[in-house]
Amino acid sequence: MATLADVARRAGVSTATASRIINGSSKPVTDELRARVLAAVAELRYVPNAHAQMLARSNRNAVGVLVHDVSDPYFAEITRGLQRVATAHGRLVIICNTFREPARELEYIDLLHAHQVAAIVVAGSGYLSSDDETELHDRMAAFETTGGRIAVIGRHSHTSDAVLPANEEGGFLAGEHLFELGHTAVGVIAGPAALTTTADRLAGLHRAAAAHSRTLTVVHADFTRDGGEAAAAALLAEHPELTAVAALNDSMAVGALAAMRTCGRNLSVVGFDDMPIARDVTPALTSVRLPLTRLGERAMELALTPPPDSTPRAEHIPAELIRRESTWPLPGPR
């Protein structure tokens, strides 16, 4: 593999000159020297070191994005918005899958810090554990002291620019819808208990239940289709009195529908996020809509546009209930 020194020798220049040309330094060089160096790069098939290039340039052109799992439709939609804005600003996006592991998030923040990215967008949920959130706060604060910017999606303890989806209000809308339809025995398939997103959506459902003097039967599962299917099967087996289920994301709701087909039950089901697949399943899924692509766009815009002063900005994104065929009134008086 060719080295920078090989390129410099082939072009007949110093390694410093070759480095400046390859890494896009703002220091002037003649067109003739530039052509010689670039020709040597092509002939030798030299691949520049990305870290060295970033150190050599006077501006940071990459942005880091932390998601729990980009294969999750929720994060795929958010990432689409993030990348759309980053591309419009001429930025490269480094996507890091943390798989909901706080230790992995710390490692990625350190890695992105070392690569001197311009900003980091934390798109995954915050954690309820104060120890996890304290460590994440310390790493993000250290990144900011070196000129990096932070923006988050959802509730986090770190004070920075934030895009805040109406998770609690969305949970209330889902619960209110089911209770208004006359359901009194409602099960909930919640996500991992350690996440603020789960806690906030569940709090909204509990608020709706309290308003109707009802209680909820809650089980926790992974935010996945398989997690929803397993949780729904357990709910139906242990609580045959249930007539409705609220799942805290659409993937789990799709899994719940599958579990009901398997056991021959027909309950009302409401999901959360209103992913594109919600319209295509049978029955079409009632869901709480969040504009996920817009969440990503606004988070990236905040990350790349410093505020006029040092006051962190918070943008609240509303939720909306989309009624479809998967929920229906319970027969009998309400």
TrEMBL record:
Q: Enumerate the PROSITE patterns for this protein.
A: HTH_LACI_1 (PS00356), HTH_LACI_2 (PS50932)
Ranges in coiled-coil conformation: none
What the entry lists under SUPFAM superfamilies is as follows: lambda repressor-like DNA-binding domains, Periplasmic binding protein-like I
Q: Which CDD domains match?
A: HTH_LacI (cd01392), PBP1_LacI_sugar_binding-like (cd06267)
Write down the InterPro entries for this protein, in alphabetical order: HTH_LacI (IPR000843), Lambda_DNA-bd_dom_sf (IPR010982), Peripla_BP/Lac1_sug-bd_dom (IPR001761), Peripla_BP_I (IPR028082)
Q: Does the keyword DNA-binding apply?
A: yes
Q: Which Gene3D superfamilies match?
A: 3.40.50.2300, lambda repressor-like DNA-binding domains
Tell me the keywords, alphabetical order: DNA-binding, Transcription, Transcription regulation
Q: Where is the HTH lacI-type domain?
A: 2-57
User: Which PANTHER family does the annotation name?
Assistant: LACI-RELATED TRANSCRIPTIONAL REPRESSOR, LACTOSE OPERON REPRESSOR
Its recorded name reads LacI family transcriptional regulator
Native species of this protein?
Paractinoplanes aksuensis
